[in-house]
Specification:
- The complex is a heterodimer.
- Chain A is built from 14 helices and no strands.
- By secondary structure, chain A is an all-alpha fold.
- Chain A has one domain: Orthogonal Bundle (MetI-like fold).
- Chain A is flat and about 70 Å long.
- Chain B contains 11 helices and no strands.
- By secondary structure, chain B is mostly helical.
- The chains are: A mainly alpha, B mainly alpha.
């Protein structure tokens, strides 16, 4: 009897073990499919062109840093990089200045039209900037604001408002009102409550919104493509795309891969630092939506 | 919890206006107004030079649109993507989320990070990388097929009319499954562990748990992620197809948004581009409403 039971338990353990390894095998193969294309790109960026064409899958035999130099030279990736950085900084300023106060009001106050405004922002989540690129272009063009990095960044920041406001209002509702009430009793004005009590408390939410929108503008393709056509005004995303077309003629693939790595590095760094905030924001977006 | 500030009586109008106006003004000017503009310009013959003196031409753009072979082709391509990509993406995301949350593996946190990783990458980078995966001579896919002894299946994936559109779908699924997995993981983590423990005691296996506990409890969120995936493929298809295939060969992978770009931005046919935009907007809203309706009815 006990023997039977022990054998049964061993069977269960063995089954568990096999199941776990099957699971691990599956997850590892998904990991390979997920990472391999990116790794391949990074490895290829260190090869020479003949080496890449003759053996595209092998490890690089030597490290060709010259590819990175050519990437910076040929396509003016340096300028594009700078434009992207400017766009991110401008966007972050606009998003924080506009989204935090607006979300605070929408989370805390009820007044004539407040529900309508919230409804407008929620509906606007589904109007992607890409859909309305033609009227956006006409709008910016009539203001003489095409081919300018800062107006582009402001415009892109605005397209991030709906989702950011959605996340921020959700976050602000979780802050207990007791803090504001205490501050009010102490004679603290509305503006000071917002800047000195709410903003510091909402920091994780602000971080999430900033990370998501900064990554969005860094990675944006469609709006930048429409608004920034001058090579010297292009952001990195667009610069890379035009480099790709260019390299179709020169076949300097390894320099292209080097340029791709230049785009990847800041995103990966931001991901490493702010993964927690990103995942928080994305989870909240789905769960509360 | 409903406290004094929520009462209508004392709205501090000055404070409220200062806080609201920048965001609201900009959003009206750059989101609402352009969207409204779409509608009326779609009834005009606005072009690059005649933009300010455009004539009202009624439904002409719309009637032309439905006879335009290129438009129909772009619509068909978009519908193909919409039919396949969101479903596959969400099924993958669910499967991964379920495995990552339910597994007892020590390294499960690692998988979660890795699967999420592609969703932070630029679509341009993804487009370029995946066009090399599908490259006829240097491509990973053909290399892999050759290695597996299936050399006869190799082809120029992105350059053949039958497969070009699907290379975009694959790149999208690769990129976004991890993103939706994160949302599903959060939802599954929200389910009380007691439910699972009770099920384990009752002898339910992992598959049974998936279909009898997890799925019914997170159905609502799965519905929402499905809507996100639908609007995601519609949006991303533009960047992916312009980088990977440039809409070719001969329009076989041109999607609606790319056709809007070609007509509106490249050719300056603003009026016509607006008609296609209006069509796309209506389609996006309808798809969102339909998916919402289906998921809420299932809850019923």
């Amino acid at each position: 009897m006990t023997n039977d039971y022990a054998r049964h338990m061993e069977n269960v353990r063995l089954k568990d073990h096999i199941f776990q390894w099957a699971q691990r095998l599956f997850l590892l193969s998904v990991t390979a499919v997920t990472l391999y294309p990116v790794l391949w790109n990074i490895l290829s960026s260190f090869k020479s062109n003949p080496e890449f064409i003759s053996s595209p899958y092998s490890l690089p035999t030597s490290i060709e840093t010259d590819n990175y130099y050519r990437a910076f030279q040929a396509a003016d990736i340096g300028t594009n990089f700078l434009n992207s950085v400017i766009a991110v900084v401008v966007l972050l300023v606009v998003v924080t200045v506009c989204v935090i106060p607006c979300s605070y009001i929408l989370a805390r106050y009820r007044f004539f039209g407040s529900r309508l405004i919230l409804g407008f922002f929620m509906a606007a989540i589904f109007i992607k900037a890409t859909y309305i690129m033609t009227p956006l272009f006409l709008q910016m063009n009539s203001l003489g604001l095409t081919n300018k990095v800062i107006p582009y960044a402001v415009l892109y920041a605005v397209t991030q408002f709906p989702f950011s406001i959605f996340l921020m209002t959700g976050f602000m509702r979780t802050i207990p009102r007791a803090y504001e009430e205490a501050a009010m009793i102490d004679g603290c004005g509305n503006f000071r409550i917002l800047t000195q009590i709410i903003a510091p408390m909402a920091r994780p939410g602000i971080m999430t919104v900033c990370m998501l929108s900064a990554m969005a503008v860094w990675n944006d393709y469609p709006i930048a493509l429409v608004m920034l056509t001058d090579a010297s005004k292009m952001t990195l995303s667009i610069g890379i795309a035009s480099l790709y077309i260019q390299q179709g003629y020169y076949a300097d693939w390894v320099a292209l891969f080097a340029a791709l790595v230049i785009v990847l590095v800041p995103t990966v760094a931001a991901f490493a630092v702010g993964q927690r905030y990103l995942i928080q924001g994305i989870s909240a977006g789905g769960v509360k939506g | 919890m409903e406290s004094s500030m929520k009462r209508k009586s004392k709205t501090p109008w000055f404070f409220v206006s200062v806080c609201m106006l920048p965001a609201l003004g900009l959003a009206f000017y750059f989101i609402l107004w352009p969207t409204v503009q779409v509608l009326w310009l779609s009834f005009t013959n606005a072009r690059t030079l005649t933009y300010h003196s455009a004539d009202f031409i009624g439904l002409e753009n719309y009637t032309y649109m439905f006879g335009d072979r290129r438009f129909i082709q772009a619509l068909q391509n978009t519908l193909k993507l919409l039919a396949a990509a969101p479903v596959i993406t969400i099924v993958n995301a669910l499967l991964l989320a379920f495995m990552v949350t339910q597994s007892k593996l020590r390294e499960r946190g690692f998988y979660r990070t890795v699967f999420f990783f592609p969703s932070i990458l630029s679509l341009t980078v993804i487009g370029v990388i995946w066009s090399f995966v599908f490259h006829p001579t240097m491509g990973l896919l053909n290399g892999f097929l050759g290695f597996m002894g299936a050399g006869e299946f190799t082809r120029a994936w992105a350059a053949e009319p039958t497969t070009a559109i699907w290379t975009i779908a694959v790149a999208f699924i690769w990129q976004s499954a991890g993103y939706f997995m994160v949302i599903h993981v959060a939802a599954i983590d929200g389910i009380s562990t007691e439910v699972y423990e009770a099920a384990t005691i009752d002898g339910a296996g992992p598959v049974r748990k998936l279909f009898s506990i997890t799925l019914p409890l997170i159905k609502d969120i799965v519905g929402i992620t499905f809507i996100f995936a639908v609007s995601g493929i519609l949006d991303s298809s533009f960047a992916l197809s312009s980088v990977m295939t440039n809409g070719g060969p001969n329009g076989a992978s041109t999607v609606l948004l790319m056709y809007i770009y070609n007509q509106g931005i490249r050719n300056g046919q603003f009026g016509y581009a607006m008609a296609i935009t209006a069509f796309t907007l209506v389609m996006a809203v309808c798809l969102a409403l339909i998916s919402r309706f289906i998921t809420s009815r299932q809850e019923g």
